[in-house]
Amino acid sequence: MVINRSHLPWFIVTLLATAVTVLLYMARFHPSHVPFAFELPQILKDAESGKNTYGGTRVGLLFGTLAFFIFLFAAALGVRKKKRLWRIGRVEIWLKAHVWLTIFTIPLVAMHSGFAMKSSHSSVMMWLYFIVMGTGFFGIAMQQVIPVLLKERLPREVVFEQIPHIRKRALSLAETLLKDCTPVVPAPDAKPDPKAVPFTPADIQSAEPIREFLEEDALPYLRLRRGDDHPLSAIRNSDEAFRHLKLHVAPNWTPRVEELQACCDERRRTDLQAKLQHWLHGWLLIHVPVSLLLIILTLWHAIVELRLVIVNP
User: Mind giving me the DSSP string for 242-279?
Assistant: First the structure.
């Protein structure tokens, strides 16, 4: 999702919600630092004032509960994307809410924990939270940059799932050209094939450099799983190699050489698209499972804390 002017209302609401959160935190734990007269609502006042934990107070529990429900809502985005026909708000609205509500969890989590990690359990949860937020911000940054690069550096973008088929087709065309450039030597007692096109001396002279280029450069490049390090992956090297090849072939072979060049160009573009797409979506491989683990540990943390509050009110 691209962050633009349409996100301004969400930014303002998040900023105001953060200000309210800070006010409640200061009024509960540092009332002398509140610059104006403000009293906590009665429902947020604790029966005892001697609690030595931030998260165990009513204000702390409020912050933790809000953060937990935001975690659940954020996790529900994956389900909403798959159920696009559900009439529960547009996916675009869900994406914006996902971004800004999870950003709002930063002050909620910080104030719920009292800006400290006082146990091994809370330390593990905080590190998981750092990973989730860090990968999330990385994903937002990639979504601002990668689509622009795709638009600028690729004349046309293909369907990502079709890239293996496109590469296989390009390799097949190159292998067919290699076969066509290899003259068939008939057996001495074989009957001549009336459909076979005989190789003229000019054809043999043109086919030799094409076959050599295919075997040494083009086919190894097209067969690579990742071709970023091959010389033909650079546009300048590729253009120079094909320009030199065209100078050594007869005019009737030029269209076949240009077809081969188009195959190499397509391979280069699909390599770039695959690389950018991996940067655009690869962070989800960490973000999603760590987010689910964080939700599970947060639920366990909530159950433990509520039992302590019930036992020791």
Answer: HHHHHTTS-GGGHHHHHHHHHHHHHHHHHHHHHHHHHH
Alpha helices in the chain (DSSP H): 8-29, 58-75, 77-82, 91-112, 120-153, 163-180, 201-213, 219-223, 235-246, 254-281, 284-311
Find all residues with CB under 8 Å of 231, minimum gap 6, and list them: 217, 237, 238, 241
Confidence class for position 85, pLDDT limits 50, 70, 90: low
24 vs 22: CA distance, rounded Å: 5
Q: Token pair for residue 63? A: 């912050």
- Choose the weakest-confidence range: 129-143, 146-160, 289-303: 146-160
pLDDT tens for 221-247 read: 999 998 989 999 999 999 999 999 999
Amino acid identity, position 272: L
The residue type at 191: K
pLDDT of residue 196: 47
pLDDT (tens digit per residue) in 1-52: 789 999 999 999 999 999 999 999 999 999 888 888 888 998 998 876 555 6
Distance in angstroms (rounded) separating the CA atoms of residues 67 and 108: 6
Contact 68, 24 (CB under 8 A): no
Q: What is the DSSP letter of 208?
A: H
Find tokens 């599970």 and name the residue: 296
In contact, 299 and 46? CB cutoff 8 Å? no
Q: Is residue 89's pLDDT more than 90?
A: no
Interior CA angle at 219 toward 216 and 225, to 5°?
120
DSSP state, residue 199: P
